[in-house]
């Protein structure tokens, strides 16, 4: 029987919600580095690998899922005959563990083989490991935030981007910013409050909570910036746009990205429409 995407997506979200307490329980003692690097050159932490193993087992076991791709693995993994492909950043902001700062998990659900365009996304979600463990899910029907108790019980509320922006968070070192981005940042910092943690999930969650803009721009020596198109930018752009905001890579919506390299990077700006429009004009 062909599952409808809706039922299959709900199964993926349930698997993520069930994995979250197990991932969080595994943080203790796993902030250290392994001897290995991932495909984008990050040194892998034990917690990166542990989270990836948990997600691969749980998500990969679902009948609806045929492909599983991870920021921590070179190649897409065939996990069955299901119609859906899942991308994960198993632990986002993992370097924050050593400072006991927030981290997250980012997940995308595509109805096409990976690498895939943002227009092939049918759903996306993130988990934020903060004082609470919360999961934010997005589908064509809207955005929902769940608080995941240790016994798995969940309460939910709908999420929409506040109209009035309050916070901003910009990645990269100021000397590495381009002239155009520096001009944009100079204006924004006089209008909004700086909130930057070094974990994309936590920083974008603040934008969704308070309104504002998150960016990891293209840099002088790295014009594509740092963040991964498939694993971070596309799913987070889907969530912010579904919540009523906008995204850009400097020229167009991040969802129009169509990566041919599974591990490509892209500049990314997420937040209130007016702030994203200003970014595109500044970078034009
Ligand atoms: P990851 O831990 O999955 O590699 O992601 C880290 C990313 C992202 O979470 C964050 O926005 C960015 O790295 C922070 O980079 P800087 O340390 O250069 O600010
Ligand atoms: Mn990493
Ligand atoms: Mn990440
Ligand atoms: Mn990661």
TrEMBL record:
Its cofactor is Mg(2+). One of its GO terms (cellular component) is cytoplasm. Residues 24-148 form the Fructose-1-6-bisphosphatase class I N-terminal domain. Pfam families: FBPase, FBPase_C. Mg(2+) 2 binds at residues 89, 92, 232. It is found in: Cytoplasm. Substrate binds at residues 92-95, 196, 226. Residues 161-283 form the Fructose-1-6-bisphosphatase class 1 C-terminal domain. This is Fructose-1,6-bisphosphatase class 1. One of its GO terms (biological process) is fructose 1,6-bisphosphate metabolic process. The keyword Hydrolase applies. GO terms for molecular function: fructose 1,6-bisphosphate 1-phosphatase activity; magnesium ion binding. InterPro entries: FBPase_C_dom (IPR044015), FBPase_class-1 (IPR000146), FBPase_N (IPR033391), SBPase (IPR023079). It is an enzyme of class 3 (hydrolase). Its main location: cytoplasm. The gene is fbp. Keywords: Carbohydrate metabolism, Cytoplasm, Hydrolase, Magnesium, Metal-binding. Pathway: Carbohydrate biosynthesis. Its EC number is 3.1.3.11. The keyword Hydrolase applies. Belongs to the FBPase class 1 family. Homotetramer. Binds 2 magnesium ions per subunit. Mg(2+) 1 binds at residues 71, 89, 91. It catalyses: beta-D-fructose 1,6-bisphosphate + H2O = beta-D-fructose 6-phosphate + phosphate. It comes from Halarchaeum salinum.
